[in-house]
Amino acid sequence: VAKAVDKALADRQAKIDAAADKKVDVITNPQTTAASPDVAIPFGLKFSGYARYGAHFQTGDQKYVGVDGSYNGASAIGRLGNESNGGEFQISKAFKSAQGAIWDLNVMFDHWSDEVNLKKAYVGVTNVLESNPNAYIWAGRDFHQRPQQGINDYFWMNHDGQGAGVKNFDIGGVQFDVAAVSQVKSCSPEVMADETNPSRITCTGSSDTGDNGHYALTTKTHNIKAGPIDVEVYANYGFDSKAVDSDARLEAWQGGLVLSHTNDSGVNKVILRYSDNSDNSVYNKTDDLTTVYASFEGSHKFTQQAQVEYLLA
Protein backbone atom coordinates (compact mmCIF):
# COMPACT_ATOMS: atom_id res chain seq x y z
CA VAL A 1 0.00 0.00 0.00
CA ALA A 2 2.83 2.37 0.90
CA LYS A 3 4.51 1.79 -2.47
CA ALA A 4 1.24 2.42 -4.29
CA VAL A 5 0.73 5.67 -2.38
CA ASP A 6 4.29 6.79 -3.12
CA LYS A 7 3.82 5.99 -6.81
CA ALA A 8 0.53 7.90 -6.93
CA LEU A 9 2.12 10.92 -5.24
CA ALA A 10 5.09 10.78 -7.63
CA ASP A 11 2.77 10.60 -10.65
CA ARG A 12 0.76 13.53 -9.31
CA GLN A 13 3.89 15.64 -8.80
CA ALA A 14 5.10 14.77 -12.29
CA LYS A 15 1.82 16.01 -13.76
CA ILE A 16 2.03 19.22 -11.71
CA ASP A 17 5.61 19.83 -12.88
CA ALA A 18 4.65 19.15 -16.50
CA ALA A 19 1.74 21.59 -16.27
CA ALA A 20 3.99 24.23 -14.73
CA ASP A 21 6.55 23.78 -17.49
CA LYS A 22 3.85 24.27 -20.13
CA LYS A 23 2.47 27.41 -18.48
CA VAL A 24 3.07 30.40 -20.73
CA ASP A 25 5.50 32.96 -19.32
CA VAL A 26 4.43 36.39 -20.55
CA ILE A 27 8.05 37.49 -20.72
CA THR A 28 9.64 34.35 -22.16
CA ASN A 29 6.89 33.39 -24.59
CA PRO A 30 4.20 36.03 -25.08
CA GLN A 31 0.85 34.65 -26.16
CA THR A 32 -0.20 35.37 -29.71
CA THR A 33 -3.61 35.31 -31.34
CA ALA A 34 -2.18 33.48 -34.34
CA ALA A 35 -3.51 29.92 -34.43
CA SER A 36 -1.36 27.08 -35.79
CA PRO A 37 -2.42 24.21 -38.11
CA ASP A 38 -2.01 21.61 -35.35
CA VAL A 39 -4.20 23.46 -32.83
CA ALA A 40 -6.83 21.31 -31.13
CA ILE A 41 -10.39 22.44 -31.85
CA PRO A 42 -12.15 22.77 -28.48
CA PHE A 43 -15.82 21.95 -28.09
CA GLY A 44 -17.98 25.00 -27.55
CA LEU A 45 -16.68 28.49 -26.79
CA LYS A 46 -13.39 29.52 -25.21
CA PHE A 47 -13.52 32.27 -22.59
CA SER A 48 -10.52 34.35 -21.51
CA GLY A 49 -9.89 37.67 -19.85
CA TYR A 50 -9.31 39.30 -16.50
CA ALA A 51 -10.97 41.79 -14.20
CA ARG A 52 -10.28 43.79 -11.08
CA TYR A 53 -13.19 45.05 -8.98
CA GLY A 54 -13.07 46.12 -5.36
CA ALA A 55 -13.53 48.93 -2.86
CA HIS A 56 -10.85 51.63 -3.20
CA PHE A 57 -10.86 53.51 0.10
CA GLN A 58 -9.26 56.95 -0.20
CA THR A 59 -7.18 58.22 2.75
CA GLY A 60 -5.57 61.25 1.09
CA ASP A 61 -6.22 63.95 -1.47
CA GLN A 62 -5.68 61.47 -4.33
CA LYS A 63 -7.11 57.98 -4.75
CA TYR A 64 -4.25 56.89 -7.05
CA VAL A 65 -0.65 58.10 -7.12
CA GLY A 66 0.86 59.25 -10.41
CA VAL A 67 4.16 60.68 -11.62
CA ASP A 68 4.28 63.89 -13.65
CA GLY A 69 5.88 63.37 -17.04
CA SER A 70 5.93 59.57 -16.81
CA TYR A 71 4.98 57.37 -19.73
CA ASN A 72 2.12 55.67 -17.96
CA GLY A 73 1.07 57.64 -14.91
CA ALA A 74 0.38 55.64 -11.78
CA SER A 75 1.94 52.41 -13.05
CA ALA A 76 5.36 54.05 -13.29
CA ILE A 77 5.82 53.61 -9.53
CA GLY A 78 4.14 50.23 -9.25
CA ARG A 79 0.84 48.61 -10.10
CA LEU A 80 -0.24 46.66 -7.00
CA GLY A 81 -3.04 48.52 -5.23
CA ASN A 82 -2.62 51.54 -7.49
CA GLU A 83 -4.90 50.69 -10.42
CA SER A 84 -8.55 51.43 -11.05
CA ASN A 85 -11.32 48.87 -11.46
CA GLY A 86 -12.27 47.27 -14.75
CA GLY A 87 -11.76 44.25 -16.92
CA GLU A 88 -11.51 42.63 -20.35
CA PHE A 89 -13.67 39.67 -21.39
CA GLN A 90 -13.08 37.65 -24.56
CA ILE A 91 -15.00 34.83 -26.23
CA SER A 92 -13.48 32.79 -29.07
CA LYS A 93 -14.71 30.00 -31.28
CA ALA A 94 -12.57 27.82 -33.56
CA PHE A 95 -13.72 25.87 -36.60
CA LYS A 96 -12.05 23.40 -38.95
CA SER A 97 -13.17 23.16 -42.56
CA ALA A 98 -13.37 19.97 -44.58
CA GLN A 99 -10.25 21.13 -46.46
CA GLY A 100 -8.28 21.45 -43.19
CA ALA A 101 -8.28 25.24 -42.77
CA ILE A 102 -8.48 26.38 -39.13
CA TRP A 103 -10.74 29.39 -38.57
CA ASP A 104 -11.16 31.34 -35.34
CA LEU A 105 -13.67 34.05 -34.48
CA ASN A 106 -12.87 36.38 -31.57
CA VAL A 107 -14.86 39.05 -29.73
CA MET A 108 -13.71 41.07 -26.69
CA PHE A 109 -15.47 43.65 -24.53
CA ASP A 110 -13.80 45.84 -21.96
CA HIS A 111 -15.10 47.87 -19.03
CA TRP A 112 -12.80 50.69 -17.90
CA SER A 113 -15.30 53.55 -17.63
CA ASP A 114 -19.05 54.07 -17.47
CA GLU A 115 -19.56 52.07 -20.67
CA VAL A 116 -18.73 48.66 -22.11
CA ASN A 117 -16.70 48.88 -25.34
CA LEU A 118 -16.17 46.46 -28.20
CA LYS A 119 -12.35 46.16 -28.37
CA LYS A 120 -11.97 43.09 -30.57
CA ALA A 121 -14.04 41.64 -33.40
CA TYR A 122 -11.89 39.76 -35.87
CA VAL A 123 -11.61 36.49 -37.75
CA GLY A 124 -8.45 34.59 -38.66
CA VAL A 125 -7.50 31.50 -40.63
CA THR A 126 -4.42 29.29 -40.84
CA ASN A 127 -3.46 26.15 -42.77
CA VAL A 128 -5.02 27.72 -45.85
CA LEU A 129 -1.88 28.35 -47.95
CA GLU A 130 -0.45 25.06 -49.17
CA SER A 131 3.03 26.56 -49.56
CA ASN A 132 2.89 28.26 -46.13
CA PRO A 133 0.56 26.34 -43.80
CA ASN A 134 1.67 28.23 -40.66
CA ALA A 135 0.72 31.62 -42.10
CA TYR A 136 -2.19 33.17 -40.17
CA ILE A 137 -4.39 35.61 -42.11
CA TRP A 138 -6.66 37.90 -40.10
CA ALA A 139 -9.05 40.82 -40.60
CA GLY A 140 -11.14 42.99 -38.29
CA ARG A 141 -10.59 44.93 -35.05
CA ASP A 142 -7.87 43.65 -32.73
CA PHE A 143 -5.19 44.46 -30.19
CA HIS A 144 -2.44 44.89 -32.74
CA GLN A 145 1.33 45.01 -32.23
CA ARG A 146 1.26 45.93 -28.55
CA PRO A 147 4.33 44.41 -26.85
CA GLN A 148 3.97 45.08 -23.14
CA GLN A 149 6.29 45.24 -20.15
CA GLY A 150 4.43 43.87 -17.18
CA ILE A 151 6.11 45.49 -14.19
CA ASN A 152 5.35 49.07 -15.25
CA ASP A 153 2.44 48.18 -17.56
CA TYR A 154 4.02 49.99 -20.51
CA PHE A 155 3.23 49.19 -24.15
CA TRP A 156 6.44 50.22 -25.89
CA MET A 157 4.56 49.88 -29.18
CA ASN A 158 0.80 50.02 -29.68
CA HIS A 159 -1.17 49.92 -32.93
CA ASP A 160 -4.57 48.64 -31.84
CA GLY A 161 -7.17 49.19 -34.50
CA GLN A 162 -9.02 47.88 -37.52
CA GLY A 163 -7.45 46.35 -40.60
CA ALA A 164 -5.98 43.13 -41.94
CA GLY A 165 -2.70 41.31 -42.13
CA VAL A 166 -0.76 38.09 -41.99
CA LYS A 167 1.35 36.60 -39.19
CA ASN A 168 4.01 33.90 -39.15
CA PHE A 169 4.59 33.93 -42.92
CA ASP A 170 7.65 31.70 -43.24
CA ILE A 171 10.50 32.40 -45.64
CA GLY A 172 13.53 30.20 -45.12
CA GLY A 173 12.75 29.66 -41.45
CA VAL A 174 12.40 33.38 -40.71
CA GLN A 175 8.84 34.51 -39.98
CA PHE A 176 7.20 37.77 -41.03
CA ASP A 177 4.16 39.68 -39.74
CA VAL A 178 2.72 42.40 -42.00
CA ALA A 179 -0.46 44.45 -41.53
CA ALA A 180 -2.28 47.62 -42.54
CA VAL A 181 -4.34 49.08 -39.70
CA SER A 182 -6.30 52.21 -38.84
CA GLN A 183 -6.84 53.92 -35.51
CA VAL A 184 -10.42 53.67 -34.24
CA LYS A 185 -12.32 56.93 -33.98
CA SER A 186 -13.36 58.14 -30.52
CA CYS A 187 -14.59 61.41 -29.11
CA SER A 188 -14.45 63.65 -26.06
CA PRO A 189 -17.90 64.17 -24.53
CA GLU A 190 -19.09 67.78 -24.48
CA VAL A 191 -22.26 69.28 -23.03
CA MET A 192 -24.51 70.88 -25.65
CA ALA A 193 -26.94 73.76 -25.24
CA ASP A 194 -29.43 72.02 -27.57
CA GLU A 195 -32.41 71.16 -25.39
CA THR A 196 -33.77 68.72 -28.02
CA ASN A 197 -31.07 66.24 -27.03
CA PRO A 198 -32.20 64.68 -23.72
CA SER A 199 -28.68 63.70 -22.72
CA ARG A 200 -27.18 67.06 -23.82
CA ILE A 201 -23.81 65.42 -24.54
CA THR A 202 -22.19 64.95 -27.94
CA CYS A 203 -21.07 61.38 -27.27
CA THR A 204 -20.19 59.01 -24.47
CA GLY A 205 -16.45 58.88 -25.15
CA SER A 206 -16.38 55.23 -26.13
CA SER A 207 -14.87 53.70 -29.27
CA ASP A 208 -16.64 54.43 -32.54
CA THR A 209 -17.01 52.12 -35.54
CA GLY A 210 -14.96 54.09 -38.07
CA ASP A 211 -11.42 55.35 -38.54
CA ASN A 212 -10.08 58.73 -37.42
CA GLY A 213 -7.73 59.28 -40.38
CA HIS A 214 -4.55 57.89 -38.83
CA TYR A 215 -3.11 54.73 -40.42
CA ALA A 216 -0.13 52.44 -39.98
CA LEU A 217 1.78 49.84 -41.96
CA THR A 218 3.39 47.50 -39.44
CA THR A 219 5.96 44.75 -39.82
CA LYS A 220 7.68 42.31 -37.52
CA THR A 221 10.46 39.90 -38.46
CA HIS A 222 11.02 37.11 -35.94
CA ASN A 223 12.16 33.53 -35.38
CA ILE A 224 15.71 34.75 -36.05
CA LYS A 225 18.57 33.02 -34.22
CA ALA A 226 21.99 34.62 -33.70
CA GLY A 227 23.76 31.92 -31.74
CA PRO A 228 22.01 31.74 -28.35
CA ILE A 229 20.19 35.04 -28.99
CA ASP A 230 16.63 35.33 -30.33
CA VAL A 231 16.17 38.42 -32.52
CA GLU A 232 13.02 40.36 -33.40
CA VAL A 233 12.96 43.39 -35.71
CA TYR A 234 10.09 45.88 -35.99
CA ALA A 235 9.55 48.52 -38.69
CA ASN A 236 6.44 50.73 -38.90
CA TYR A 237 5.23 53.62 -41.04
CA GLY A 238 2.41 56.00 -40.10
CA PHE A 239 0.45 58.29 -42.42
CA ASP A 240 -2.81 60.26 -42.54
CA SER A 241 -5.79 60.44 -44.86
CA LYS A 242 -7.71 63.54 -45.94
CA ALA A 243 -9.88 63.11 -42.85
CA VAL A 244 -7.04 65.00 -41.14
CA ASP A 245 -6.63 68.70 -41.94
CA SER A 246 -3.93 69.27 -44.55
CA ASP A 247 -1.79 71.39 -42.24
CA ALA A 248 -1.90 68.65 -39.59
CA ARG A 249 -1.05 65.66 -41.79
CA LEU A 250 2.27 64.02 -40.97
CA GLU A 251 4.26 60.90 -41.64
CA ALA A 252 6.00 58.91 -38.92
CA TRP A 253 8.59 56.16 -38.84
CA GLN A 254 9.45 53.68 -36.15
CA GLY A 255 11.95 50.86 -35.71
CA GLY A 256 12.52 48.39 -32.92
CA LEU A 257 14.96 45.64 -31.98
CA VAL A 258 14.52 42.94 -29.33
CA LEU A 259 17.36 40.66 -28.25
CA SER A 260 16.41 37.78 -25.94
CA HIS A 261 18.41 35.06 -24.23
CA THR A 262 16.51 32.20 -22.60
CA ASN A 263 17.95 29.59 -20.26
CA ASP A 264 16.57 26.91 -17.94
CA SER A 265 15.91 29.39 -15.14
CA GLY A 266 14.58 32.41 -17.00
CA VAL A 267 15.13 35.00 -19.70
CA ASN A 268 16.91 38.31 -20.25
CA LYS A 269 15.77 40.78 -22.87
CA VAL A 270 17.10 44.05 -24.33
CA ILE A 271 14.58 46.31 -26.09
CA LEU A 272 15.52 49.27 -28.29
CA ARG A 273 13.08 51.57 -30.11
CA TYR A 274 13.63 54.64 -32.29
CA SER A 275 10.70 56.80 -33.43
CA ASP A 276 10.60 59.79 -35.76
CA ASN A 277 7.62 62.16 -35.43
CA SER A 278 6.09 59.76 -32.89
CA ASP A 279 6.60 58.01 -29.58
CA ASN A 280 5.27 54.48 -29.04
CA SER A 281 2.70 54.63 -31.86
CA VAL A 282 2.94 55.96 -35.41
CA TYR A 283 -0.78 56.76 -35.21
CA ASN A 284 -0.05 59.66 -32.87
CA LYS A 285 2.31 62.06 -34.60
CA THR A 286 4.17 65.16 -33.42
CA ASP A 287 6.22 67.21 -35.86
CA ASP A 288 9.99 67.16 -35.23
CA LEU A 289 9.64 64.75 -32.31
CA THR A 290 12.33 62.08 -32.00
CA THR A 291 12.19 59.52 -29.22
CA VAL A 292 14.52 56.73 -28.18
CA TYR A 293 13.48 54.01 -25.74
CA ALA A 294 15.81 51.41 -24.24
CA SER A 295 15.17 48.84 -21.55
CA PHE A 296 16.55 45.69 -19.97
CA GLU A 297 14.18 43.20 -18.39
CA GLY A 298 14.06 39.60 -17.39
CA SER A 299 13.02 36.95 -14.94
CA HIS A 300 14.75 34.29 -12.86
CA LYS A 301 12.93 31.21 -11.63
CA PHE A 302 14.31 29.82 -8.37
CA THR A 303 11.70 27.06 -8.02
CA GLN A 304 8.35 26.23 -9.59
CA GLN A 305 6.78 28.40 -6.87
CA ALA A 306 9.29 31.27 -6.67
CA GLN A 307 10.32 33.68 -9.42
CA VAL A 308 11.63 37.24 -9.56
CA GLU A 309 11.14 39.72 -12.41
CA TYR A 310 13.17 42.89 -12.99
CA LEU A 311 13.14 45.87 -15.31
CA LEU A 312 15.43 48.82 -16.05
CA ALA A 313 14.10 51.39 -18.54
UniProtKB/TrEMBL annotation:
Record flagged with keyword Transport: yes
Keyword field contains NADP: no
Location(s) in or outside the cell: Cell outer membrane
Pfam families: LamB (PF02264)
An annotated Gene Ontology molecular function: carbohydrate transmembrane transporter activity
BP GO terms, sorted: monoatomic ion transport; polysaccharide transport
Cellular component terms (Gene Ontology): cell outer membrane; pore complex
This protein's UniProt keywords: Cell outer membrane, Ion transport, Membrane, Porin, Transmembrane, Transmembrane beta strand, Transport
Membrane topology qualifier: Multi-pass membrane protein
InterPro entries on file: G_neg_Bact_CarbUptk_Porin, Porin_LamB, Porin_LamB_sf
Family listed: Belongs to the porin LamB (TC 1.B.3) family.
Protein name: Carbohydrate porin
Organism annotation: Klebsiella quasipneumoniae subsp. quasipneumoniae
